[in-house]
Each structure stands twice: as structure tokens, then as C-alpha cells.
Design brief:
The structure holds 2 protein chains of 2 kinds. Chain A is built from 5 helices and no strands. Chain A is an all-alpha fold. Chain B is mostly helical. Chain B contains 2 helices and no strands. The longest helix of chain B is centred in the first third of the chain and has 26 residues. Classes of the chains: A mainly alpha, B mainly alpha. At the A-B interface, helix 1, helix 3 and helix 4 of A face helix 1 and helix 2 of B.
Chain lengths: ~130, ~55
């Protein structure tokens, strides 16, 4: 593996750390959401917020790297970056808005929407080719 | 090795440390954000999205 690819792979492997929060969100930490009255200790919200923030930092780092090194970046990196630039902004905005909506209502339907949108945001980072 | 490749690798390594630190700090947090913190991060998100590397 060329050094540039190895270093890029290391950068993007940070996204692998996303699998833990993704699993937490997907496997039932939301079960107690509708009865939670604590605005500061809802583990589902804490996990969702952390997941979106980490996913965003990962995608942002990748795009910053691709932008700064376009001359030497692999063609596949450019293709992924172009796709991310087109769809990631709306995805992250929607995920953050869904979390805010759930925090305002603590309702079951809002919890479901929050989980779905956070998962979509997570997939942007975890589906980068180098993290598979 | 191509100097451009070396520079690109060093840039990526530096970014890796920066991002890794942010990820570790975020993962340590065990509470949800306050309304002010959530709004501050939304503003941070919007400011990031306006940077050149996010331009289509």
C-alpha cells in the first residue's frame, strides 16, 4: 500500500469508532425515551448527539484532506468526496434537527425519526470505502 | 518518494491527530447537550459547511 493510501486509511478508520454508538442507537437505547423526564441524562439523546458529531468530524476531515490533496488523491476519493458534498449537508442538518425535535417533545414518533436520521448520518461516515 | 505525496501524508497524519482528539473528547461525554451547547454546535456545523472544502 502506498504511504498516501495508508495514511488516508488511518484517517478514515477513525470512522470505525462510529460502529459502537451506531449499534447503541440501533439496538434499543431508545426503549426508555418516551418516559424520560430528564433533559440532561437521556442516554438515547446523548448517544445520538455524539454519533452525529463524530460522523460529521470524520466526513469533514475526509473532505478537508481530499480538498487539500486533490492532485494526489486517488480517483475513488474524489468520487466519494463529490457525493458527500452533494448530500451530506442536508443529512447532518436533518439529523441535528431531528434530535432537537425529539428533545422538545420526548415523543415516540420523534424518537423513531431521530434514530432513522442519525443512522443515515452515521452511514455517510461508516460507508466510506476505506472503513469497510 | 514524491514530495507531494510526503506532504499529503503529513497533512493527513496531522488531521488524524486533530480528529482523533475531537472524537475521544466527544465519546467521553455521558450526558446530552444543553440547549445552548446544541445551538452552538449547529452554528459550528453551518460555519463548517460554508468552508471551501464543502463546496460542490
Amino acid at each position: 500500500m502506498r504511504p498516501i493510501r495508508r495514511t488516508l486509511a488511518a484517517l478514515l478508520c477513525a470512522a470505525a469508532m462510529l460502529s459502537a454508538p451506531a449499534a447503541l442507537v440501533a439496538t434499543g437505547t431508545l426503549s426508555g425515551c418516551s418516559t424520560s423526564s430528564s433533559a440532561r441524562h437521556d442516554s438515547a439523546v446523548a448517544t445520538a448527539e455524539k454519533s452525529v458529531q463524530i460522523a460529521f468530524e470524520t466526513v469533514d476531515a475526509f473532505l478537508a484532506w481530499e480538498y487539500a490533496n486533490r492532485a494526489v488523491a486517488p480517483e475513488a476519493a474524489r468520487t466519494v468526496a463529490t457525493e458527500l458534498r452533494a448530500k451530506a449537508p442536508a443529512t447532518f442538518r436533518a439529523a441535528w434537527a431531528a434530535i432537537a425535535e425529539y428533545k422538545a417533545t420526548r415523543g415516540a414518533s420523534e424518537a423513531t425519526r431521530m434514530t432513522a436520521r442519525v443512522d443515515i448520518a452515521l452511514n455517510l461516515a461508516t460507508n466510506l470505502p476505506w472503513t469497510r | 518518494m514524491d514530495p507531494l505525496t510526503i506532504i499529503a501524508a503529513m497533512t493527513a497524519a496531522s488531521k488524524l491527530i486533530e480528529v482523533g482528539t475531537k472524537i475521544i473528547e466527544t465519546r467521553r461525554r455521558n450526558r446530552e447537550l444543553t440547549a445552548e451547547e446544541a445551538e452552538a454546535w449547529r452554528v459550528y456545523l453551518e460555519s463548517k459547511l460554508e468552508q471551501p472544502h464543502w463546496s460542490v
